[in-house]
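Instructor's aside before we start: the two examples that follow are unrelated to each other. I chose them only because their records fit on one page, so don't look for a connection. First example below.
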Amino acid sequence: MTSAVRPILSICIPSYNRSSLLLSLLQEMDRPDFLPFDFEVVVCDNASPDPGYAAIAEFRPEHYGYAYFRRSTNIGGAANIGGCYRLASAEFCLHLSDDDRLISSEVAAIVARMQDDPQIQATFAGFEDYERIGGRLVNGRGFEEGSFTQDNAPGIVDMLNCGRLAIPELAIYRSMALGSALFASAFAYFPYRVIERLLPLGVVRFQPQIYYTGIAQHSGETERHIRTSDDFGMAGWSSVGRGFALLCQAALGKPLYDLAETPEQRLFLTLTRNAFVDANNHARFFEALELMEYLICLGAGALFSDDERTHTREMGYLDAIRLEIEKLPGVTTAHLIGLGDAGGTLSQMFLGHRSSVAVVKSASVMEVDPSHAAFVTPSDAMREQLISLFALRPGFVFSLEAVRRAFSL
């Protein structure tokens, strides 16, 4: 049991089948003047068949901390991004694609401002696209300056709904807060839900200054890269739409739509309600929760009784914890510490889904083995104690108190 000095920033890099580009990125960051504080780089390899990842696993930088994780199976790009965030051990964290670059001076400025103001939970910024062939800036997209809390949350809707593409894809997060707010799914694009869940904790800030450069074309490449937002496809853009709608409802405090006016709209709501019932019947409780929240957003809250809403939320947030733990690479054990009845329910969820993660019920933090483990505690105070005691990554430790707050329970 030991406490360690944590780095200030974790740069989280999900990667798949691009070892040469990733190695070049890791080498470029390995210089003493890259950032004016201690930082780490965390790579999460999504089960790449590329043999070049042997060099990534063995890479040893001189000027920053480094950790390499490899998944045994490919869980999909979006899920790997969300899971990679949870590998951060530093006070702050950000995501970096394995073929892009950071503007380190602006990263340092954002971190300094967040250190000066502990109420800021996340700082969102836009990006620029750059062609290394010829050194040409292709385009850039940023946000207007704005800081939001629950008190002025409707302003987020006005800023993001500004007549142009304004997807909150890139942010520097406070790692402790993100660990309680990040529950990603294919249903709703996760940054919108993260913003919604961070607002009760403090300030969510947007800025026009850009800290991220997307490399549209590297030297030696014959074609430009496709940006993530250009390659979402129908399912991806539907996820963005649902995420934005749910954020709007949370910010405005009322249903966003009223779709029960025509027979066609009522049929759509009925079919979505049937999907909700099916998800509950097959113990996909987090999916059921998201479907219920979306139907409420569509003005169909009358489809659910008060008891049904309560049950769905109670089961859904526990299932969300299970799903996040199962995405953590290398985790074989989930310690449930002093959870009471909620611990029994969560344990049954792991068993019912035939999870490869073994569940261990513990009475106190002194009984646990931290290796290859995730943890669920009843309170924020115990979560913080456990992270400090074992120098754990915040994304590996869950507090029922924090998660219930994130899900408005």
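Example two begins here.
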Amino acid sequence: MLKKMICLSIVLIMSVVFANAMPIYAKDSLDDLKDAYEQAKAEKDQAKVAYEKAKKTEQGIQARVRGLEASIKSTEAELAVLEKQISDNNEEIDRVAAEVEKLEQEVAEQDSDLNSRLRLMYMSGDMNIIEVLLNSENIIDFLDNLEMIKRIHEYDVQVLEELNAKLKEVEIKKAELDKLKAMLDSHKKAQEDRKIALAEDKKALAAAEEEAHASTMEAKSEMDSLEAESKRIEQELRNRQSSATYGGGAMGWPVNGRVSSGFGQRWGRLHAGIDIPAPTGTPIHASADGEVISVGWNGGYGNMVMIDHGSNIVTLYAHNSGFAVGLGQHVTGGQVIAYAGSTGNSTGPHCHFEVRVNGAPQNPMNWL
């Protein structure tokens, strides 16, 4: 009898222990899963920010590379113009040098003729000139001969002076051209140095672009991985919470007010809910009974709350300034769950309200 009572007591105790242990284990597992989901979602948002930042950095570097490529092309065009100018100047210098050489030869010939005439005059003394003058037939002829001799002498002097002046002018021009050539050579060297520097910059930027691209891909890979993990946990949460059934009937409005933007296409994309303007801090109410499956920051939605109402029906409340519920909390229709705000991508304080069935957005007006 005593043995039988002991056995019954043991069975009773084990039954109580297991009856209590199973729910606690399931609850702890679900809480851990919800915590993991919130952590994965937060990490995903951080990874997305890092990805967008890396992408902008990569785009900035690509723009700088394109700018440098354009600058290099411009420099190459400038070099081509300078090389043409140098070639033209070299031809001009050759032409002037030939002209100088010809003039020097003419001056030398003129000088030789003049020297020969002077030597002849020296050797013959002034007899030739006197003879010419004495052979004049009359005073008029004498004056004419004297004028002729004077003009010959003046002509020789004038020719020599003109040749010397022209030679000096050509020498000046040649010096100017040499100076211009030196300046262009210097400019060309400066341009070549600039071209080398730009090529080095381009090489450095190409390396930076490659590094930035790799960083972008790494950030994207991390973001995609976290996105997948977040979806996996979210799906597991939904699987665990999908046993509930929606009670039916019309949903209540999350906040009183007019609809400023309806459901449908807007700015080339689907506006998945309705917008109801409300001052910051206005209480936002649950549209129906359900369980909070998401509460926190969610990118463009800002501070967001999602409630599972069963039958794969979920409502979403976005751009809130604050929260009044926590993850996993059961709420009733009309209960305050958040406060209106303008967080995320928002142009002013309002409540963005969505109804989703199996994840697909529905027109909330058909449910309210």
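Residues 1-28 have pLDDT under 50 and may be disordered.
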